[in-house]
Structures are given as structure tokens and as C-alpha cells.
């Protein structure tokens, strides 16, 4: 395991995460969104920088699109396409955290995300979709070493003969979410207090949310992915997963801290869950990457 990944896991707890000041109430965010919008000229994710020791180098053949027009990028992506409903997976719990930067102290290549929620009612492929403002988009994913926050001890012990296996199933629980944006969803029983690489944002007037995270790692049996939910009026209307082109992932994994986690056995082509409706459009940005996708729902 990469030493930076190991040490950062020892430092994180939910109590620490909640004391960072990086979370705000949903009511306050909704009020802020009502007072402003994301225009085509201003919808950008700022360039992010990370130490060279933890960032995967951006492809040298592409020009970094610092200040890229997100609306233009999103309009070129999979508009008017229904995003496939997919499994929640065994490692979700209601972190109830409205925050844009979900990294905490996770090492890895910076990944800026822009996700747009739109309504497909009456929409045909290639047309402009109707934005869904004030939708709450929640994401969570594993760290560079393949471990989910809240399930560190279980995941770290998931090895057979020195080879990493998929994280074991989470313990069953009867707990249901009861937070500011999710009510009634089944939660897994966590094994620790960590909350890294989990959080939610409220869509602006154009249905867009933005996150700063790190490029996800991998674990046996699954391709690289990000879990995603869309909530409307505290009800989950979409549960899906987001994916990456394998060529980009292969390049990212060639650098620390990813290179210390070897034995990857699953790509998009042999993953039993992968669906192209969740494939992110990725561009290099600074020392990291920018990924965008449209989340098409039928409301």
C-alpha cells in the first residue's frame, strides 16, 4: 500500500470531518442557488493543483482546458439520454454532507466533476434537455487504494494470498437515511467514522453541480467507478454509477499513489455492471482531470 494512503487513513474520522467547516445546511444552499445561476460564460471548474508526488500526469498530447466552458462540454455529451438505474452497492450510508470538496486529505490525482441533471420528458436525442434545479446530487467512491470511508477495516483485510480481493459485503442493518436530503434509503452498517470521498451538492438553475475529488482507485471484480444518487424533495429518483475510459485510467494508475496498488483485474469490457450511459467525458486540467456527464431522469 502507498504510505501516503496508509497514513491518511489513520488520521480521518467522522468527528474530524464534521469539524472541518466544509459542510453547510441544505436550506442555506437552496437559498444561495435561488439567488444565482451558472451561465454558459461562467460555468467553469477552476484549475486545481496537487503535489507532483500524488498527481498523475495529464496526457501530453492534449492541451489542458483550464477554464473550460462546462455548458459547452455538457451539450456535447449524452444529452436526452436516460441514465441507467444501477445498484447502490454495499457501502452507502447517509453522510448528510453538503460540500463541493470531498477529498479531506485523500492523496491522488485531482478530479473536478461537473454533473448536470435534466428531465427527459418530451426530449429527443440531440435536443436541449430541461434542467432540474435544486436537485441534490450525491457521490461516493473508494480511495486510491480501493477502500471506502466508513468501511476501512473490512476493506483493508480483504486480501487472499497477498492478492487484493473485492471488499467484503457490509453488515446488514435496518437503519434508514433520515438526513437533510435523503429519507428512507437503506444504509450499510459502517465499521469506522471516516467520511472521505463522500458528499452532495445542490444543482443550480441549469441543473449543474460541481465537485472536487480525486480519481478513484479500484478493487477486484469492479472497473473504476463513482457511485451517484439524485434526490428530489428528499426522495431518491436515480441511483447509478459513473465510469471512466480505460485508457485514461491506465495512465492515471501508472503514477503514485495508484501504482502501489497492483493486480487490477477488471476493466469496462469485463465489468458486469458497467453501462455507457454513465461514462464521463474526461479532459486533462492542470495536474489533474475534468470530467462531465449529464444525468438524464424522467420526472
Report the principal-axis shape. globular
Tally of separate helices: 6
Radius of gyration, in angstroms, nearest whole number: 18 Å
Mean pLDDT: 79
Got a strand count?
13
In percent, how much strand structure appears in the residues?
Answer: 15-25%
Molecular structure report:
With 299 residues, the protein is α+β, with helices and mostly antiparallel strands. It has six helices and 13 strands. It has helices at residues 3-11, 14-18, 26-34, 70-76, 152-156, 246-252; strands spanning 110-119, 130-131, 136-140, 159-160, 163-164, 176-178, 183-186, 198-202, 208-214, 225-232, 235-243, 281-285, 288-297. The strands form four sheets. Strands 1, 2, 9, 12 and 13 form a five-stranded mixed β-sheet that branches. A four-stranded antiparallel β-sheet has the order 8-3-10-11. A two-stranded antiparallel ribbon has the order 4-5. A hairpin with a 2-residue loop joins strand 12 and strand 13. The longest helix has 9 residues, at 3-11. The termini are far apart.
Amino acid at each position: 500500500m502507498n504510505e501516503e494512503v496508509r497514513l491518511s487513513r489513520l488520521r480521518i474520522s467522522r468527528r474530524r470531518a464534521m469539524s472541518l467547516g466544509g459542510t453547510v445546511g441544505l436550506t442555506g444552499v437552496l437559498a444561495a442557488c435561488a439567488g444565482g445561476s451558472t451561465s454558459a460564460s461562467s460555468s467553469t471548474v477552476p484549475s486545481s493543483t496537487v503535489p507532483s508526488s500524488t498527481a498523475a500526469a495529464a496526457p501530453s498530447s492534449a492541451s489542458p482546458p483550464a477554464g473550460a466552458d462546462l455548458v459547452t462540454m455538457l451539450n456535447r455529451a449524452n444529452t436526452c439520454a436516460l441514465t441507467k438505474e444501477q445498484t447502490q452497492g454495499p457501502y452507502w450510508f447517509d453522510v448528510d454532507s453538503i460540500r463541493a470538496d470531498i477529498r479531506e486529505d485523500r492523496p491522488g490525482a485531482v478530479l473536478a466533476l461537473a454533473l448536470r441533471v435534466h428531465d427527459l420528458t418530451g426530449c429527443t436525442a440531440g435536443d436541449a434537455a430541461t434542467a432540474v434545479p435544486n436537485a441534490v446530487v450525491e457521490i461516493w467512491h473508494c480511495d486510491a487504494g480501493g477502500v471506502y470511508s466508513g468501511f476501512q477495516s473490512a476493506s483493508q483485510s480483504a486480501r487472499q494470498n497477498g492478492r487484493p480481493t473485492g471488499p467484503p459485503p457490509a453488515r446488514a442493518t435496518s437503519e434508514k437515511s433520515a438526513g437533510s436530503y435523503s429519507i428512507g434509503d437503506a444504509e450499510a452498517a459502517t465499521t469506522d467514522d471516516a467520511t472521505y470521498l463522500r458528499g452532495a451538492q445542490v444543482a443550480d438553475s441549469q441543473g449543474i453541480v460541481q465537485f472536487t475529488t480525486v480519481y478513484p482507485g479500484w478493487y477486484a471484480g469492479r472497473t473504476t467507478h463513482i457511485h451517484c444518487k439524485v434526490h428530489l424533495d428528499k426522495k431518491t429518483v436515480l441511483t447509478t454509477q459513473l465510469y471512466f475510459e480505460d485508457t485514461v485510467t491506465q495512465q492515471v494508475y501508472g503514477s503514485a499513489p495508484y501504482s502501489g496498488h497492483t493486480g487490477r483485474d477488471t476493466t469496462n469490457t469485463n465489468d458486469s455492471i458497467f453501462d455507457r450511459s454513465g461514462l464521463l467525458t474526461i479532459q486533462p486540467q492542470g495536474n489533474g482531470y475534468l470530467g462531465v456527464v449529464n444525468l438524464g431522469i424522467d420526472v
